[in-house]
Amino acid sequence: MNKNNVYILEDRGLLYINGDDAKEFLQNIITNNIDNVSEVKSCFSALLTPQGKYLYDFIIIKHKLGYFLDCEKKNIENLYKQLNLYKLRSNVDILNLSNEFVVANLTKEKFLELVNSKDEVGFTIKFREDPILLDPRSDKLGARLVINLEKLYLSIKKLGLNVSDASEYYNYSHELGIAQIDTNKLQDKIFGIECNFEELNGIDFKKGCYVGQENTARIKLKDKLNKRLFAVKLKEGQITGDEITFDNKNIGKLLINNKNPFALLKLENKKFNFDADLRCGDAKIKALKPNWL
User: Fold this and answer.
1) With pLDDT > 90 as the criterion, what percentage of the chain qualifies?
2) Predicted structure pTM score
3) Which of 7, 8, 71, 193 sits most deeply, having the most CB atoms within 10 A of its CB?
């Protein structure tokens, strides 16, 4: 991607969580350690079911007295409701700021040109008082700017950036094996650890309890991770159905079926044959090997 490109991610939504109990509230329910989030460090995390199944994933950014949660916009209302269910009597305010704030993506190269930047995933600086962070999942995803919509285009101009088609960014994310579109299709169908959240810096196995922690820790400690979410690409034909086979044996299921599809695939001795031609209905598909594996 061109160093001076910027991608406005209109499919992202933002919640803002503040109040005296905000930090403790998040720490008790999310997969990562909120103690590591500061003005100069952001993190990737998730909210799971009590059984450890995927519900939502998001990036957490410290901002003023609270925290931004950067989540896929189509999930934002349900995430808002879910967080309010857990709030109980906590002194916490949860605001949906998706109509006021926006997320924009810029390249790692551009980020590293900025004053006080650092080549470290999750590292966060301010530009005109707005947070810019190197993506905590992978530095190859570049940096994210969280900004009030009214300030967006002036900041883009001051950064010397050119607005480009966001599909270029999402195609690249697919190549990296990081799902960001239609993640609601994963809900309650896949364990959080099967979403590669450990490899994407989204789970802290040393923190205390959180929702879904027991099964997540058991899968990790007993080495029971036998399936993973992988990006797949169409080689020929048309995808019909969701069952994925190899040599007439069922080896997985297509969970996200859009132009950047993802499938949950079985591992053989903790590995996967990325050279294999797989079948999904009438289509021939291939799993993409992510750089973090």
Assistant:
1) 93
2) 0.96
3) 193
Domain residues for the domain of 111 are: 5-175
**Is 216 a member of any domain?**
no
Dihedral angle computed from the Cα positions of residues 202, 290, 120 and 45, in that order, rounded to the nearest 10 degrees? -10
What burial letters (b/e) apply to 126-163, b meaning 16+ CB within 10 Å?
Answer: ebeebbbbbbbbbbbbbbbbbbeeebbeebbeebebee
The Cα–Cα gap between 227 and 175 comes to 19
Which of the listed residues 175, 204, 238 is the one where a domain comes to its end? Answer: 175
Please give the Cα distance from 133 to 172 (Å, whole number).
18
How many beta carbons lie within 10 A of that of residue 250, not counting itself?
10
Residues 6+ apart with CB under 8 A from 61: 37, 42, 67, 68, 70, 124, 131, 133, 146
Task: For residue 158, name the pLDDT band (cuts at 50, 70, 90).
Answer: very high
Q: pLDDT tens for residues 170-217? A: 999 999 999 999 999 999 999 999 999 999 999 999 998 999 999 999
Q: Are residues 136 and 246 in the same domain?
A: no
DSSP string, the chain: --TTEEEEETTEEEEEEESTTHHHHHHTTSSS-GGG-BTTB-EEEEEE-TTSBEEEEEEEEEETTEEEEEEEGGGHHHHHHHHHHHHTT---EEEE-TTTEEEEEE-HHHHHTSTT--SSTTBEEEETTEEEEE-SS-GGG-EEEEEEHHHHHHHHHHHT-EEE-HHHHHHHHHHTT---SSGGGGTTTSBGGGGTTTTTT---TTS---TTHHHHHHHHHTT---EEEEEEEEEES-EEEEEEEETTEEEEEEEE-SSS-EEEEE-BTTB--TTPPEEEETEEEEEPPPTT-
Q: How many domains does the chain have?
A: 2
Mean pLDDT of 19-44: 98
